[in-house]
Amino acid sequence: MKLARSDRGSQTRELLLATAERLFAEYGVEGVSNRQVSEAAGQSNNFAVGYHVGSKEDLVVAIVRPHAASIERRCGEMVAQLPDSPGLRDWVSCLVRPAVEHLASLGVPSWYARFIAQATTHPTFRRLVVGEAFASRSFQRCHEAMFRLVPLLPEEVRRERDDMGRLMLVHICAERERALQEGTASPHSTWESTATGLVDALVGLWLAPVTARW
Amino acid sequence: MKLARSDRGSQTRELLLATAERLFAEYGVEGVSNRQVSEAAGQSNNFAVGYHVGSKEDLVVAIVRPHAASIERRCGEMVAQLPDSPGLRDWVSCLVRPAVEHLASLGVPSWYARFIAQATTHPTFRRLVVGEAFASRSFQRCHEAMFRLVPLLPEEVRRERDDMGRLMLVHICAERERALQEGTASPHSTWESTATGLVDALVGLWLAPVTARW
DNA sequence: CAGAGACTAAGTCATACGCCTTAAAAGTCA
DNA sequence: TGACTTTTAAGGCGTATGACTTAGTCTCTG
């Protein structure tokens, strides 16, 4: 069968992706060359990344994709179990918890949160990554449902607070991931507490009064 | 007199800093070599950065310092003009507006917000930059005053929301700076509106109810 | 089992890097 | 003016990079 043959290749590919994710989180996306990734993954061929994945942009996208899929799946499941006429807090939870629980499922140390924080902040990888990681169906649906529950906001403020929410989710997760690796707290309680804190904060953010402008 | 002599040198140095700030914001801090900075600044000596500033870490700190000083000055002035028994919103404004007004004063295009967003996200430059940019006296004072007005928060939540506020300030300013460069909105109204939006959001964040954990 | 295709090892090549040296130019002061 | 210091110009040196080639290994399929 074909699996066994393509297995070795795809194993190597996944090893490369995991290694790249870790190195990028530790030293910055631009701070690590494809060559270093190949060598750190134990490949004698310094062009292994080029062969199995492609350019650095391809590599970044390839790292994001499976994580995004897992989060999307969790998000879909959570939406399906929502009570009748869910409130703002329910929808916010559907945006926060799938991502946090995915990170929790990775164990310690995980690297994805720090990787994604950097990638979304980088001027050239930004578009690529945001499109890949935040454009899923369930995610979109939660956003729309959420907007309907805060109907008083002008479009501009809505967009602004949406940005704020995304930034908080990404970067707070990155900081917790770092703290978790350095510290002594139990992973589960830390991630659970992070999710609760984020949901509280995001609800407060969306419900904050709006000062008129101009 | 000595000024004239050191003038040429310090002018070159400042040209290097400004060039580096722009290139870092455009292509990422790690994506630009000191050599490229020297050459983009029109210096034939490709070691100009090394001569005038030092290592890349020194360069990053040197870029931050004057901006941080300007923001600190504005913050001090704003605190001095605060009304008697200022409210939460007043102290939040003292944390947000000095930074935003400093960015507005730079004109369009400015690069500092995007630079600082990346630098504070980078795993190795993080400590360096956060210490330099957010550790000023007036800033600390505003924080403490703010905390006294939200006394119910557990220490952990306080710290968490403090992180959130800092992240929002930095990254939202970076997004606005980018939008401003690409878009057509008048700079003043955009920055003013950004400040208002941030203050609204941060007040909402600090006043958000806290769910018990564990 | 033999051969085709997928994968890895090993290494080449031009380019770009950081760091450094040397020499000329610009500026200062006795 | 002439000795002295600071700054800039020009370029060398060893190393690391991305892109690529070639040779060989492994695994399945016919």
Automatic annotation (TrEMBL), chains A, B:
Ranges of residues in domain HTH tetR-type: 16-63
Keyword Chloroplast: no
Record's protein name: TetR family transcriptional regulator
Alphabetized PANTHER family for the sequence: HTH-TYPE TRANSCRIPTIONAL REGULATOR BETI, HTH-TYPE TRANSCRIPTIONAL REGULATOR RUTR
UniProt keywords, alphabetically: DNA-binding, Transcription, Transcription regulation
Annotated transmembrane regions: none
Gene3D superfamilies: Tetracycline Repressor, domain 2
Organism whose genome encodes this protein: Nannocystis punicea
Lineage: superkingdom: Bacteria
SUPFAM superfamilies, per the entry: Homeodomain-like (SSF46689)
